[in-house]
Design brief:
- With 255 residues, this protein is an alpha/beta fold.
- It has a domain of 178 residues: Rossmann fold (3-Layer(aba) Sandwich).
- α3 crosses α4.
- The protein is globular, with a radius of gyration of 19 Å.
- The C terminus is likely disordered.
Length: 255
């Protein structure tokens, strides 16, 4: 696989505090990597480092030439007194044509929101608009910081399915920070468990059995993950309904 970014022994120290210690991993084209960890683990700092917003205290980052990165922040703070509709917000991303902005909205199923007030969007709608704005760059890498924050469970299922479909459409890599472990595990290729250093990394099935993972998240979370993965081997459409109802007709239940 084509390597997009390589982190070699990255450490970040702010003042006298070590935020990240000896972080090494790579991101490849078409790969979905999910970063998990408790609060204060350094996840946001690692995202900033990948984006080039935080300079490492030690180590090196190698990026492929002309790498285009699309970023969806954890939250967006807008001035409530400033009138702003979706299309005008999209224009702030740069000099993109009306057609390009509309196509980006269509990609995330949000073209009907083109003239909607940004201040009145639901959590799920807001995340789709932020995702559409990031897609205007036609990124090689999408960096998503808690993309499902403030989105209900049904909306999370739809959002993660959408993210996976975008990976295939654009052949881009996705680096995603998430707390929604029982949902996101079914949609990722690799998991990195962070607690200032990398505690463990690998395929979801292996990570949920790792002692470091269990020490951070506990047996109960592991059981919830196993239940979700077992029940969701089929595909969902954007409404959250299974594409193949065969397993649902066998008495299975869904979260």
């Amino acid at each position: 696989m084509t390597q997009l970014i390589q982190l070699d022994n990255i450490s970040v120290k702010i003042g006298n505090k070590n935020i990240l210690d000896n972080i090494s991993f790579s991101i490849h084209k078409r790969q979905i990597i999910t970063l998990i960890g408790p609060n204060g683990a350094g996840k946001s700092t690692l995202v900033k480092t990948i984006l080039g917003l935080q300079k490492p205290s030690h180590g090196n980052i190698k990026k492929s030439q002309k790498l285009r990165i699309g970023y969806v922040p954890q939250k967006l703070t807008l001035n409530d007194t400033l009138p702003l509709n979706v299309d005008r917000f999209m224009k702030l991303a740069g000099k993109f044509s009306t057609q390009e902005r509309l196509e980006a909205l269509k990609l995330v199923g949000a073209e009907h929101l083109k003239l909607a007030n940004m201040h009145s969007l639901s959590g799920g709608e807001n995340q789709r608009i932020l995702l559409a704005r990031a897609l205007l760059q036609r990124p090689d890498l999408l960096v998503l910081d808690e993309p499902a924050q403030g989105v209900d469970v049904q909306g999370q299922i739809e959002l993660y399915s959408l993210i996976e479909s975008l990976r295939h459409r654009f052949e881009c890599a996705i680096f995603m920070v998430s707390h929604d472990l029982h949902l996101v595990m079914a949609k990722t290729d690799e998991v990195i468990c962070l607690h200032r250093h990398i505690c463990c990394s690998g395929a979801p099935a292996a990570i949920t059995k790792h002692p470091s993972y269990l020490a951070l998240f506990g047996q109960q979370e592991r059981e919830q993950l196993a239940f979700y993965q077992h029940q969701h081997q089929h595909e969902h459409d954007l409404s959250g309904k299974p594409v193949d109802d065969s397993c649902c007709n066998q008495g299975h239940q869904h979260d």
